[in-house]
Amino acid sequence: MTAGWVDEALSGQPDGHSAADAHGRVREELVLERIDRVRRARPRIREERITMSHGAGGKATHTLIQAIFLDAFRNPLLEPLEDAAELLADGARIAMTTDSFVVSPLFFPGGDIGDLAVNGTVNDLAVTGAVPLYLAASFILEEGFPVADLTRIVASMQAAAERAGVQVVTGDTKVVEKGKADGCYVTTAGIGVLRDDRRLGVAAARPGDVVLVSGPIGDHGVTIMLARGGLDLEADVQSDTAPLNGLAADLLAAAPGLRAMRDATRGGVATILNEIAAAAGVGVVVSEDDIPVRPEVRGACELLGIDPMYVASEGRLVAVVSPDDAGGALGALRAHPLGADAAVIGTITAQPPGIVTLRTAFGGTRIVDLLVGDPLPRIC
To answer: What is the pLDDT of residues 271-294, one digit of tens each?
Structure first.
């Protein structure tokens, strides 16, 4: 839109329309044009070296994925960039995912790297609508790592697998020299079967749809932050790490108009909402008063200047459902132990596309953008 076009638009207003109205419309069109221009731009990494922000789940991570990995491996199975890929094997629809876990510390209130690895992989399968079945687990161990700690981690993984109804069926182990790792890293992969004909994905969100979250957000990220010590801060909070396959299955059964599910890990709920807005070309409007956050988590975030919307959970999902199914979806979530505090937090809108807007508790509005990095690295 050129300056001349703007002048022309403002000089020839029909009766009943003020110049202020015209300015407002022009400003809106300029913003939408800029959004479209940004969306079409090819991502590229400006940094010469990888930084911590590239692994934080925010803008830097999205740029890394699109500019390096998606650019190199581009194919129809990868391009949706969902939590798991949908594959066909002899006519059967299966889902496959992989994840790596580098959480620090390895043991924390409510869990450890072992059950976190199992639950995280199970959840990535579950939110695509799949029934998780099998896992692979690979370990990178640092020379000198205590055998007792490794035994504890593996026992935790097995207990988590039993709770989720999956089996660890293959794996690998590597050991590196002392000082070349940080104790123990775990990489998992998972396979599940898709028994429902629906194809879920954030790109399916439509104006009028309703956004739900399955419970209080930010528990895991705040727990990890406090477990690291060094902060004169105490809070009675523990990680929410849990397998979501049962909860996701109940939601699938209760809501024929379910569009998408995502588990709110790195980058928190704010990142998921931005992914929905970008993938579907829609707006998302959420209400701060409706987003469940435990008082302990909110208090810790306020003291540290962190927005709970960006803090990771490991046992919460965000769902987008048709307006007709919102009541049934909320009821199904609240009927499950892991969804007892589920809430409707917002709606999908047609405008402005690609933008997430928060209605604040004070009656104002603000844009919820993707962060470049994450104030809490290595939370999973």
So the answer is: 999 999 999 999 999 999 999 999
Q: What CATH number has the domain bearing residue 310?
A: 3.90.650.10
The Cα 274–Cα 35 span in angstroms is: 13
In a domain, 181, yes or no: yes
Residue pair 232/292 in contact by the 8 Å Cβ criterion: no
Query: How far is residue 207's CA from residue 215's CA, in Å, rounded to a whole number?
Result: 24
Question: At residue 8, does pLDDT exceed 50?
Answer: no
Q: Are residues 90 and 171 in the same domain?
A: yes
At 301-360, the pLDDT tens digits run 998 889 999 999 999 999 999 999 999 999 999 999 999 999 999 999 999 999 999 999
**Domain tally, the chain:** 3
Residue 22: give the domain boundaries: 3-10+17-40
Residue 235: per-residue pLDDT: 77
Distance separating alpha carbons of residues 219 and 296, to the nearest angstrom: 9
- DSSP assignment of 254-271, as one string? H-TTEEEEEE--TTHHHH
**Residue 281, token pair as written in the block:** 């070309």
The reported pLDDT for the residue numbered 361 is 87
State in Å, rounded, how far the first CA of the chain is from the last one.
Answer: 45
**Alpha carbons 128 and 263: distance in angstroms, whole number:** 10
Dihedral angle over CA of 235, 248, 342, 276, nearest 10: 90
Cα–Cα distance, 75 to 32 (Å, whole number): 29
Place of tokens 């790109």: 203
| Residue 221, Cβ density class (10 Å: 0-12 exposed, 13-18 middle, ≥19 buried) | buried
Distance CA 290, CA 211 (A): 11
CA-to-CA separations, 125 to 84, 164, 202, 269, in angstroms, rounded: 6, 12, 15, 18
**In terms of domains, do 95 and 128 share one?**
yes
Which residues is 107 bridged to in the sheet? 112
The answer to whether position 101 is within a domain reads yes
Assign residue 141 the CATH number of its domain: 3.30.1330.10
Name the nearest CA neighbour of 220 among 305, 115, 127, 138.
Answer: 115
Q: Tokens for 70?
A: 């998606």
- CB count within 10 Å of CB 124 equals 27
> Reduced to 3 DSSP states, what percent helix, strand and coil does the chain have, rounded to the nearest 5?
40, 20, 40
